[in-house]
Every structure is written in C-alpha cells, then in structure tokens.
Design a protein that fits this description.
Layout (H helix, E strand, L loop, with lengths): L4 E4 L5 E2 L2 H13 L5 E6 L3 H14 L3 E6 L2 H10 L6 E4 L8 H10 L8 E5 L4 H10 L3 E4 L4 H8 L12
Parallel strand pairs: 3-4, 3-5, 5-6, 6-7
Antiparallel strand pairs: 1-2, 1-4
Helix pairs in contact: 1-3, 2-6, 3-4
Length: 165
C-alpha cells in the first residue's frame, strides 16, 4: 500500500510514511516549536491553503497538516504518538467522507475527547444536526471572505502573543 500524501504549512507536499509524520509532530510538539497543531481533513488544496493563510495570520506558531480524506485522517491518528490539538473536518471528501470519519474517530476511546470542528460548505441543517450528534465539537460553514474567515476562526485559533519588553 503506498504511503499517504500529506501537506504541512512548513513542508512542501510530498510522500511521507504516516509514522514518520507522526514522529515529526511529536518531536516538534515536545520541543515546543509549535504552540498548537491542527489537522485539516480537506481534499481541496485551495481550501486548505486558504485556511492556512488565515490561521497563520492569527498565529504563526500554529502548524497545520492536511489529510485528503477520512481514511487518511484515521490512518494518521492510529499511528500518532501525540494527538493534534484540533481537527477541522470537511464533510464532502473522497474515499471516506467527514461524517463517516467522525463516526469512526468518536468510536475509539483514545480519540473521544479530541476536538473536531466540521468546517464545510454545507448549509443543510440535517448535516449540522447529524455531525453534532456524531460528536463534532462544532459545525461551521466555510466563509466566503477573508475577513469573515478571520473572525470565524478566532473562535478556535488564539492570537499570537507578542512579547513586550
């Protein structure tokens, strides 16, 4: 089975075995290089890049990793030594959609407290209700402007603390 492809805001998109990336994040987190790290389960690289820009504008010490579908997200979590601080999850993805992934994550006691925000274009109230019933921490509709995204993500992404001296 080929290794899944992952993207990070610090590294070019490339093929890495899951365990190597899990070890990478464990090392970065334990050495305090990052304030927090996020997985964004999203198959559209433009949506991933947009979220990265907004997050980095709020706090440059946050690291974001991309998984392209629910199956890749689950595979990463299964091999992770340190769990992410937060997962943003799209609903509509190939191989395994966000709802199926959310269901599987919340079945596993190791991940039951992992915050998962469904971040989607779906405005269907049934999708929102179902995701919240499956255990999503929150359900938010993807904003259409940078300003709206910046304000919306402020709920989840802390501002970078500026040292005064």
């Amino acid at each position: 089975m080929p290794s899944p492809e992952y993207a990070s805001t610090h590294f070019p998109r490339r093929i890495l075995p899951t365990h190597s990336l899990a070890q990478h994040y464990t090392l970065r987190k334990t050495k305090m290089f990052v304030a927090m790290w996020i997985i964004y389960a999203e198959d559209d690289i433009e949506d991933f890049n947009f979220l990265c820009e907004i997050v980095k504008s709020r706090n440059s010490s946050i690291d974001i990793m991309n998984t392209r579908n629910g199956a890749e997200t689950l595979e990463f979590l299964e091999n992770a030594v340190v769990l992410p601080d937060l997962i943003f999850m799209d609903i509509n993805m190939p191989a395994m959609d966000g709802k199926a992934c959310l269901r599987e994550i919340k079945k596993d006691s190791r991940f039951k407290d992992l915050p998962i925000v469904v971040y989607t274009t779906s405005r269907d109230p049934k999708d929102k209700l179902q995701c919240l019933q499956l255990g999503a921490t929150d359900y938010v509709e993807k904003p259409h402007s940078v300003k709206a995204a910046y304000e919306l993500l402020g709920k989840f992404i802390p501002m970078e603390k500026v040292a005064t001296g």
